[in-house]
Write a structure and sequence with these properties.
Mean pLDDT: 89
InterPro entries: At3g05675-like, At3g05675-like_ankyrin
Pathway: Protein modification; protein ubiquitination
Number of strands: 0
Keywords: Ubl conjugation pathway
Shape: elongated
GO biological process, one term: protein ubiquitination
Radius of gyration: 29 Å
Helix content: over 70%
Low-confidence stretches: 158-166
Function: May act as a substrate-specific adapter of an E3 ubiquitin-protein ligase complex (CUL3-RBX1-BTB) which mediates the ubiquitination and subsequent proteasomal degradation of target proteins.
Strand content: under 5%
Order of helices and strands: HHHHHHHHHHHHHHHHH
Length: 332
């Protein structure tokens, strides 16, 4: 550190060595060494190990603010904004993105940051549940508007897909369903998804319009239902019986109608996992409700075959619980 050009010497030595020299300079109160090290360290990139070393040095040593403030500005967040608020802003930016490729990459990036297994998760103060659900409702409103637009065009011309342009409508619907599925994953991973199930179960207008819409894009709605059914079937969400019953009452028939399209346009959805967990979720309902739904599935499967989900295993469980066990108890 007694070199004529201390910064050039530090540049050859590297960041790790400069941090070590900084600590030694502090211990012997060598001001010129401290100033040179901090000036060099502030001007160059650090890796994560070097950043941690630097934090430890600042925790152990005291430096004059006039020479350390620029380094501290890189080590500590100075403004008052919280990670919670920033996270909501990032999520909203992703859902409003117009570039499909970039949006998917950013979804993966943000999901990684919010994952409980992420090294960054411990730095988050939490997620603003209310703001996330506000974004969910905004996406749902956009989805409803798209189906209303399509139904109005169909009433006017009988050729909705030709008027609106098949590809744009499909892309717009797909964007909103991808947004909602992504938001649902975030909510599930942070134990906040129960309200989403209730919200989706109450989409009476979408359920009504589903039957009249083109199967070329209406199946996207069942992609959202598939995520919800899978989460319920795996026990990742615990909802009241009334909510689960309402969900199946509204979205089970559309799922039966759309299953063939979900197989052909899976977009990463594992239909075998869907079949298994759809059956498991159905088995959480009261037995009388199960019976009416299994009867509907049975008729559908008999006429459509593989275009309908195969719930045979769940059907057998329901039959055994409803009749075999009951007959044994009656004989006793």
């Amino acid at each position: 550190m007694f070199e004529p050009d201390a910064l050039r010497w530090l540049a050859r030595a590297g960041v790790s060595r400069a941090i070590a020299v900084l600590e030694v300079s502090s211990s012997i109160m060598f001001d010129r060494g401290i100033e040179s090290c901090l000036k060099y360290i502030e001007a160059v990139p650090w890796n994560e190990n070097e950043e941690e070393k630097l934090k430890h040095v600042f925790a152990r040593c005291t430096f004059d603010d006039s020479v350390s403030k620029d380094v501290l500005a890189r080590l500590q967040q100075q403004c008052g904004s919280s990670s919670e608020d920033l996270t909501v802003q990032l999520v909203e930016s992703v859902t409003c993105g117009t570039n499909n490729g970039a949006r998917k990459e950013l979804q993966s990036l943000v999901s990684g940051l919010l994952s409980k297994s992420s090294v960054y998760h411990k730095d988050l103060s939490g997620l603003n549940k209310g703001s996330l659900y506000q974004i969910c409702r905004s996406c749902l409103s956009s989805l409803v508007e798209l189906f209303v637009e399509d139904s109005r065009q169909a009433e006017c011309t009988g050729q909705a897909m030709k008027v609106s342009g098949c590809k744009p409508m499909m892309e717009r619907v797909s964007k909103q369903t991808e947004n909602l599925n992504w938001l649902f994953d975030i909510l599930v991973n942070n134990d906040m998804a129960e309200e989403f199930v209730e919200l989706w179960a109450k989409q009476d207008e979408l359920i009504r319009m589903h039957e009249q819409a083109s199967p070329m894009f209406r199946y996207e709605l069942s992609r959202i239902s598939a995520s919800v059914f899978i989460a319920l079937g795996k026990g990742r969400i615990q909802c009241p019986s009334d909510t689960r019953s309402q969900l199946f009452h509204g979205w089970f028939r559309p799922m039966l109608m759309d299953f063939g399209w979900l197989q052909r346009c899976s977009k990463g959805l594992d239909v075998r996992i869907l079949e298994e967990n759809l059956g498991q979720a159905l088995l959480t309902l009261p037995l009388q409700h199960q019976q009416s739904l299994f009867e509907e599935w049975f008729r559908c499967f008999a006429s459509r075959g593989t275009e309908c989900p195969n719930l045979s295993r769940a059907f057998q469980v329901w039959w055994r619980r409803s009749f075999v066990r009951s007959s044994v108890e009656v004989r006793r």
